[in-house]
Amino acid sequence: MGVVGAFDNNLKELERFSGSKIYFRGNSIAIKGKKFENERVKSAIEYLIDRFRSDKKIDRNDIISSLNNDVINDIKNQSTVQPLGEVIKTPKRSVISRSKKQKEYVKSLKNNQITMSLGPAGTGKTYLAVAVALSMLLEKKVERIILSRPAVEAGERLGFLPGDMKDKIDPYLRPLYDSLYDLLDYDKIQRKIESGAIEIAPLAFMRGRTLKNSFAILDEAQNATRIQIKMFLTRIGENSKLVVNGDPSQIDLPNKNQSGLIEAQNILKGIKEIAVINFDHQDVVRHPLVTKIVEAYQKNSNDKG
Which residues pair with 218 in a beta bridge? Predict the structure, then answer.
């Protein structure tokens, strides 16, 4: 029941995404379709079995991820089914890195003081960073999580917007909150926000601070200027980790040349304590259609170039 789902719903989802027909009778699963797709579905089912053993449940995102090419290749290269990637334990679910780049990314989040990740939406940059940050907070390896984003739509002039700081910045941090709520109960998150264990801070308000015993995440960093990214990176203090995430193809600044993300990558890539992870469309683990959309836009961009 766990792997196939209620009324075989998990298998039906696999059918829809893969194009193969899947039949479940007793304890056996039969796959009918093109040879390539059959192998793909077989590997996906093996992944889901392993996922269920690890987390005792399977959701739609697991089914989508099971058809990721890197997951399939890892399954084929194993003589027995083993947990794939780094497992990040959080109260509501265990998070497993899917692609090779995600595994490299999670390893860096745990082992390096500063991690920069660049790549398209759907590659897990934000979600995995929040998961690692939350697990470290709950394990008391850090004392607080700091979530930050450039508020480009408000021109960073948050003082002119109504409400307190939280009201002003919350709309820009919604994706970070979504990740938190997926990993920890709402009430517990609210209590940690009230106690200061989870802090929201617009990037413009980070000046002059030194972040000690903290895990700080700067999301949407492609919309941070050169000065802002340098300012954020130099906030690091004792026993702290900084993460800078961004998608260079999604710059919303009035002058795209103002973005400091690519420049920071080039300047810092030789520093031992700083890891730079570059994702591409092959690492997208959202709905399969998202991967096709990203590939189409990349092809269009390359053709114009």
Answer: 148, 244
